[in-house]
């Protein structure tokens, strides 16, 4: 009897356009640090690239902190809902109003989470557009 081998293939998610763009900008900045240029226009473009990358990192940090804060509040509210659950024996549930109020707060947090995600997407799109423009400018200057 011959043994069969099972091959497990892991699916590695493909990088998004914005991730590839940031990787290319990082590599471009790394190469810029290694070479010395006296062209002031190239230096200005490289500095703008570095600032755009820094801005992208700071926007990510701010939104990550906001997501963590919303998750913390959601966990707190879920805990409050669980603690207000009916106790056995239940004759009259006096805490139904409190649970409904807490669920309404969870819905509000969900709406806020979606609003923040949309705001982050819009900010990142503008930053990635600027990063792409700066990279194109840098590459065109480097060809001369």
Query: What is the terminal separation in angstroms?
Result: 67 Å
| Number of helical regions | 3
Our Rg estimate from Cα atoms comes to 25 Å
SSE topology string: HHH
Globally, the shape reads elongated
Measured by DSSP, the beta-strand proportion falls in under 5%
Q: What percent of residues adopt helix (DSSP H or I)?
A: over 70%
- Outline the low-pLDDT stretches: none
Please summarize the sheet with the most strands: none
Structural class: mainly alpha
Q: Would you report the number of β strands? A: 0
Description:
By secondary structure, the protein is mainly α. It has three helices and no strands. 76% of the residues lie in helices and 0% in strands. The longest helix has 47 residues, at 96-142. It has one domain. α1 packs across α2, α1 packs across α3 and α2 (40-83) packs antiparallel against α3. The chain starts with 16 loop residues before the first helix and ends with a helix. The mean pLDDT is 83.
Overview features:
144 residues; mainly alpha; elongated
Write the layout of secondary structure elements.
Elements: H1 17-34, H2 40-83, H3 96-142
Helix pairs in contact: 1-2, 1-3, 2-3
In short:
The chain is mainly alpha-helical. The chain is built from 3 helices and no strands.
